[in-house]
Amino acid sequence: MSAYIKALVLGVREAFRGRITEHLSSAVSNGFARGVPILESSKCLGCGLCSRVCPPRAIKMRPAGRKVVGGREVPREEPSFDYFRCIYCGQCADVCPAKAITMDRRSPVDVVNITAPQVLILGAAPQVASFLVIAALVALVYWLSGKLAPRGRHGPSAREPFSGGVPMSSSRYRYYAVSLMAFVLFLLLAEALCFLYLLASPNAQAFAVLLLAALVIYLQGLWVSRRWAG
Amino acid sequence: MGKLSKRVTTLEELTRELKAAIESGFNHLMAITCVDLGGELELIYSLSSLDGRPLHLSLKVPQGSAKVSSIAALMPAASFYEREVHDLFGVHFEGNEGMGSRFLLPQCYPEEAPPPLLKSVDSAQVRELLSTLRCASPLPIHLEAPLSPESVVVPFGPYHPALKEPEHISLVVEGERIRKAFIKIGYVHRGIEKAAEARSFLRDIYLFERVCGICSTHHAWTFVEAVESLLGLQPPPRAVFLRAIVAELERIHSHALWLGLVGYWMGFESMFMWVWGLRELVMDILEEATGNRVHKSFVTIGGVRRDIPDEKLRGYVEKLSQLRSSIASLMEDILSSEQFASRTKGVGRYTLEQARRFSAVGPVRRAAGDPYDIRKIEPYGAYDRVDFHVPVASEGDVYNLVKIRLEELLSSVDIIAQLVEKIPSGNPVPPRHFMGTVPEGEAYARTEAPRGELFYYVKADNKHNPYRVKIRTPTLANIQLAASLLEGALVSDLPLIVTSIDPCFSCMDRVTVLKDGEFFVLKLEDLVKLARGGRSECVH
């Protein structure tokens, strides 16, 4: 029995101390890893050599403003890296004539997080991504049902998608609470927004906003439950 | 090594010429290369003598209904090579027993469909055809076998706990004895040779590195060696030394990996732990030297990708000398252990005669008694400047294979020490990376990869991309011997015997994902789609 208690205590203690396993970045922080290609835009000539040599074709040339060549303005192109295709061989940095591409010795995972805006959903953990998608869908359904509901002499349930056309009965009325629905909707949206913010900029400020939102949700929940009970 | 000088022969002359070649000492078949010249096919039989002299017989046959007499009776090793050519080019070899079934391609690939490696065939076409075939449905694998009433056919693989890579072996079993073994390969065949034809030489280096995760430097080096001889390019002397050092480090890590696996399959898991622990040291050195643990991307056309400073090299030698003493004591412990000896001595026994007949390569050949080491007989890189001993044993069995590989580990450490001592100064990195065209010509290269002789054939025609690349990996040469060794063995020895040749099935099949001759990364959705597709196939 004491062994079980010991294991329990150890588990709780470890939960506060942080994970036992090594973080991925420690595998590349020994200074030997080749690193991740990062572009220094101001140095780039736009020659496209990197995209020509890239073994898995992970570099695409994208238009990026204009440059002046021989007194004339011409469109300028700049490489953009697909870090999911990249094999991190460093050939692009080797061939770059202007040394605009450097191999940054970091874990690819960290870099993918930096380029969050375009890969936010994909880069996030699957649970988070699916949560965001579901939250957005629920919000859409509510919004649509509000728009589509017939106006006129209808009960308040007409605005509600799941019990819409069903006549109200006393047994069902017990479970019907507009404020509870609104609360759930608010919770989902607020949480989704907070997660988005936290993913885009993982810093203390975002975390504080998340905490604040959690507090608001808590207070609103208290208020709703008191009203519903009353 | 170098440009190909071919002796032209005809259909009628082929068998006679081959007989004459075998009699004059060219009794090792390196590869049968087929090249589509547009309208006609060229078959190149690459032979080698035991002292490293090559002989290439060239034979031109019309495309389509080409019929060539099989040389499998003369050289049993040719059987698999001929079947490969049959699958990929549609050449019919009269007298080869395997012509009726598929070898690398899926069994359901129709006979009348175009062979995929012909120049007129687009890879998208092949993909489309494959997507319409019902290959995922469980095909009964029928193998004609002389069955006695007591014998049972046991399918082994393609997915089996004792196999790390998918391969199918049909075993005809009587009690605990295996009477006959049939091997079907190609479960991870994705047409890397076709993909290479659509990419530039520089990009191909990275592609070929990915043929094998364990001997990646050897694949890159062999390809680069062939391309450099086509270009007439002499890499800087320091680069040649550095390539050899990294290649030897790779040999140490590969042999250590294999040794651990052998321990694992014989139930000696402590050995697995010890050896893989030692191997970690080499992996760390490789990471420090090249920047990656597995795909080193170190060799490039005209040199190497980065220099390793002398003081670092000396540090590696010091670390490796510690490894050498641990390996030596491990060798003493393992080889003198009673349990180990009784589990391995006489298991998977073969003679020199058998090894020669099946053109076995690498440690498998040397265990039987031939000092057949490409580093010695046809020195490439810096190997002619070091003095080393090629370990041989008198008879092939698992015990001798372990012994030979352990001795090779020690000799690799010595080679590295000599190379570091003799390494010249200079800049090994080419001033600019090769991105030009390669003049017309054909060249072959072979190196001693950890698993044995690795053969590359490259044909260029003044373009940025190769016209044809042929890879013959060591496992394809050795697997035929392994299949014959299984006959008469116990079922429980099967994993040990198959592991003893150090098989790399994916190398043999040459895996990559091909789409329109472009590299194509499978996404999660594709995998899900594939999985769903497979399931619905089975339901039908």
What does this structure look like?
- The complex is a heterodimer of chains A (230) and B (540).
- With 230 residues, chain A is of the alpha+beta class.
- Chain A folds into two domains: 23-114, 2-Layer Sandwich (Alpha-Beta Plaits); 122-165 and 173-229, no CATH class.
- In chain A, 53% of the residues lie in helices and 13% in strands.
- Among the domains of chain B are: 1-123, NADH:ubiquinone oxidoreductase Nqo5 subunit (Beta Polymerase, domain 2), CATH 3.30.460; 235-452, Cytochrome-c3 Hydrogenase, chain B, CATH 1.10.645.
- Chain B is 42% helix and 17% strand.
- In chain B, a hairpin with a 7-residue loop joins strand 14 and strand 15 (468-472).
- The model of chain B is unreliable at 511-524 and 531-540 (pLDDT under 50).
Please write out the topology.
The complex is a heterodimer of chains A (230) and B (540).
Chain A lengths: L1 H16 L7 H4 L7 E4 L9 H5 L5 E11 L2 E10 L9 H5 L5 E4 L3 H7 L1 H8 L2 H23 L21 H4 L4 H23 L3 H26 L1
Antiparallel strand pairs in A: 1-4, 2-3
Helix pairs in contact in A: 6-7, 7-9, 9-10
Chain B lengths: L1 E2 L2 E4 L4 H10 L4 E9 L3 E9 L5 E9 L4 E3 L8 H12 L2 E3 L28 H10 L19 E5 L11 E7 L2 E8 L7 H6 L3 H9 L6 H16 L5 H29 L3 H22 L8 E2 L2 E2 L5 H26 L2 H7 L7 H6 L5 H6 L5 H4 L20 H25 L18 E9 L2 E9 L7 E5 L1 H13 L7 H7 L4 H5 L4 E2 L2 E2 L4 H16 L1
Parallel strand pairs in B: 2-5, 6-7
Antiparallel strand pairs in B: 1-13, 3-4, 4-5, 8-9, 9-10, 11-12, 13-14, 14-15, 16-17
